[in-house]
Automatic annotation (TrEMBL), chain A:
Domain ABC transmembrane type-1: 72-265
The protein, known as: Spermidine/putrescine ABC transporter permease
PANTHER family given in the database record: INNER MEMBRANE ABC TRANSPORTER PERMEASE PROTEIN YDCU-RELATED (PTHR42929:SF1), INNER MEMBRANE ABC TRANSPORTER PERMEASE PROTEIN YDCU-RELATED-RELATED (PTHR42929)
InterPro entries on file: MetI-like, MetI-like_sf
Subcellular location: Cell membrane
GO cellular component, as recorded: plasma membrane
Topology with respect to the bilayer: Multi-pass membrane protein
Main localisation: membrane
GO biological process, one term: transmembrane transport
Entry's transmembrane regions: 21-41, 71-96, 108-127, 147-170, 191-212, 246-266
Stored Pfam families: BPD_transp_1
Keyword annotations: Cell membrane, Membrane, Transmembrane, Transmembrane helix, Transport
TrEMBL record, chain B:
Assigned keywords, A-Z: Signal
Full protein name: Spermidine/putrescine ABC transporter substrate-binding protein
Entry-linked InterPro entries: SBP (IPR006059)
PROSITE patterns from the UniProt entry: PROKAR_LIPOPROTEIN (PS51257)
Keyword Oxidoreductase: no
Signal peptide boundaries: 1-29
Pfam families: SBP_bac_8
Gene3D superfamilies in alphabetical order: Periplasmic binding protein-like II
Keyword Transcription: no
């Protein structure tokens, strides 16, 4: 058996690759394709069965109803703000971890950043709900439930996904470059602007792909702290959960996919994708 | 290589399509009958046979407890011992999930609320029930039998299980005087602006319709689940007007309990179980069915048409509404039991009064959840009513 594969390297490669390729093709792209196909069908109003009848009706509703535009803009706005907040908070933290801390402290800090990821998403979101509530810990400065509360909660939830890529990027940045910049007479701000930022920018973009796409698809946090506001994920959820309208849910679900494809195309040139 | 990949993707896509076509069968287009539709012809079971040894139960959480959540709460094991039917329980979260799961044909019985039951009947997934084979049916409250959500054309499609109302609930320390009308939640000038909590589901449109039924009689609403164009628009507009008053919409009763306890909300729509829970934690809360009436739920145990375990299914139906078990479920879940003898079996004797279990007049005030369909449920044939899909889209629009 081994000898058989040994003499046929191409067959060996194909054999080894077939399982992951099958997974990628069937489970991943297949599911995405099925989703996209479903978006062109509709459901029977009463029995709730999916009717295979090709039409662009769902997309027409999506584009003509003002409410879906509003929700899309709100969702993208929230995702963008969460990304900016996370980047601003994460950078100094990642810098301290990568450049200032001792190797021992570095390990402890990485673990400290990861610990929130070990706790359940729901517990963390509900913890924010009780902090933001009328008699919560933050009640004096609480914005109440709504879009602001959602941005705060999501920024907290996704922060580790921003810190870790930036930390990895800064860790790879040779100290000698920073020293050289100093030797050449640059002050720290100038070093940051001309040396550190350009070299770690791909890492920041890599982190932003996580925070942006995770916020784009979220529907739980906004359900818990969002008050009356809703995001794209809620529309998808309501259409599946309440209306049993899988086709329209699929139509709405293509919106974040398209936005993410656009975003990835835009950041491809920065080299961020090599950082993932 | 690239070419081969594209071909593979093509084959993949086509096979997916074929698979999808195979599963989504066509359904009978129903001519309007007594209730707007004629269900597929199915016969009820004539006589019980030998128990088949298996039963697959699809139930609301808390309706079919086997001791795994709480060792003290278990009415599945005694049933297994008595009948020899091994029970597999699958809990579901929403009526729509139940409808979807029933289509798989893997379940024998289901506890369906009114917004699911007619859909199961229409699609032929549930069959008529021979009530003569369920001895405990005789003790079921008469006002729950042969209703529009558990029977079609006088044929019973299931056994009533329990019911409850979506109550007007308020904090007695923050809301004075005690409200007697839903207007505290709907009036644009309500003094509780930003402190109102409303139910998060398209079916909540019926609450607005019920309010309009009392306050705008010229709209001619007779049934809050049968709304034509004009009535539907009025209900949607009322909810849009309500939105600035609302602090949040709830679908998780624990979240609502928390909001009422913390004072983030002071008035809202709630279930009896939420009121009890929140009161138990020390919040000064009161609830009532206001002058306009209220929406609510009435659940029915139904038998799957394709069930291979019908004898076990009938034995389960009889077991689940037997006085003792019906009392246990009602107590555990927080609702009025269907069996008249269940009240005597409750460990807390006040519960039947709390839930108004035997109060036919109170039960009549409730507009039970029903699936809105194009054929108007109130019997009008000259107009088309809005179906649940349109309710859902409107609900998204209301929330904005």
């Amino acid at each position: 058996m081994t000898a058989f594969f040994y003499r046929r390297p191409k067959l060996r490669l194909g054999f080894l690759l077939s399982a992951p390729l099958l997974w990628l093709g069937l489970a991943y792209l297949g599911a995405l394709a099925a989703l996209f196909v479903t978006a062109f069908w509709h459901t029977d109003a009463f029995t709730g069965q999916v009717v295979v009848d090709w039409s662009l009706g769902n997309f027409e509703t999506l584009f003509t109803d003002a409410v879906y535009r509003t929700i899309t803009f709100r969702t993208v706005g929230i995702a963008a703000l969460v990304t900016v907040i996370d980047a601003v908070v994460a950078f100094p933290m990642a810098f301290a971890m990568a450049k200032l801390a001792s190797p021992r402290a570095q390990r402890i800090l990485v673990i400290a950043v990861m610990t929130p990821l070990w706790a359940s998403y729901l517990v963390k979101a509900y913890a924010w709900r009780s902090m933001l509530s009328g008699n919560g810990a933050l009640s004096s400065i609480s914005p109440g439930y709504g879009v602001t509360a959602t941005i705060v909660t999501l920024s907290y939830l996704w922060l580790p996904y921003m810190i870790l890529p930036i930390y990895a990027g800064l860790d790879r940045l040779p100290d000698s470059l920073v020293d050289a910049s100093g030797d050449l007479g640059a002050r720290s701000l100038r070093t940051f602007r001309s040396v550190i930022l350009p070299l770690t920018f791909p890492a920041i973009v890599a982190g932003s792909i996580f925070t942006f796409s995770l916020s784009l698809g979220d529907y739980i946090a906004v359900k818990i702290v969002g008050g009356t506001s809703q995001m794209l994920g809620n529309v998808v959820y309501d259409n599946i959960g309440a209306a049993n309208n899988l086709p329209f849910a699929a139509t709405v679900a293509t919106v974040p996919v398209v936005i993410m494809l656009g975003y990835l195309a835009a950041v491809r040139r920065t080299g961020a994708l090599d950082n993932l | 290589m690239k070419n081969r990949k594209t071909r593979l993707a093509g084959i993949l896509g086509v096979s997916l399509l074929l698979a999808a076509c195979g599963t989504s069968g066509s359904n009978s287009s129903a001519p309007p009958g007594a209730q707007g539709f004629t269900p597929p012809k199915l016969e009820a079971l004539k006589a019980l046979g030998q128990p088949e040894g298996q039963l697959n139960v699809l139930a609301w959480p808390g309706y079919a407890e086997n001791g795994s959540n709480d060792p003290k709460v278990n009415w599945v094991t005694p049933f297994e011992q008595q009948t020899g039917c091994k029970v597999n329980v699958k809990p579901f979260g929403t009526s729509d999930e139940a409808v979807t799961l029933m289509k798989t044909g893997q379940y024998d019985v289901v506890s369906a609320s009114g917004d699911a039951s007619l859909r199961l009947v229409a699609s032929g997934d549930a069959e008529p029930v021979n009530t003569a084979l369920v001895p405990n049916y005789a003790d079921v409250q008469p006002f729950l039998k042969n209703k529009s959500w558990n029977s079609v054309g006088g044929v019973s499609y299931g056994i009533p299980h329990g019911w409850g109302a979506n109550l007007l609930t308020w904090r007695t320390d923050k809301v004075t005087p005690a409200p007697a009308s839903w207007s505290v939640m709907f009036d644009a000038n309500s003094p509780y602006k930003g402190k109102v909590i409303a139910y998060d589901s398209p079916i909540y449109l019926a609450d607005a319709a019920l309010y309009l039924q009392a306050h705008q009689p010229d709209l001619g609403i007779k049934n809050p689940y049968a709304l034509d164009d004009k009535q539907f628009t009025a209900a949607v507009n009322l909810l849009k007007q309500q939105r600035p008053l609302v602090s949040e919409y709830w679908s998780d009763y624990l979240k609502e309990s928390q909001a009422l306890k913390n004072g983030d909300a002071v008035v809202g729509t709630a279930w009896q179980v939420t009121v009890n829970l929140t009161k138990g934690e020390g919040a000064p809360l009161e609830s009532a069915v206001p002058s306009e009436g209220a929406t609510g739920w009435s659940d029915t145990w139904m038998v799957a048409a394709k069930s291979p375990h019908k004898t076990c299914a009938y034995k389960w139906l009889d077991h689940i509404i037997s006085p003792k078990v019906n009392a246990q479920v009602a107590e555990y879940f927080g609702e009025a039991p269907a069996n008249t003898k269940a009240c005597a079996e409750m460990s807390d004797k006040t519960l039947c009064d709390t839930y108004h279990a035997g109060d036919a007049a109170y039960a009549a005030k409730i507009a039970y959840w029903t699936t809105p369909i194009p054929q108007c449920l109130d019997g009008r044939t000259d107009v088309k009513c809005k179906d649940y899909g349109e309710w859902t889209r409107a609900w998204t629009e209301i929330k904005g």
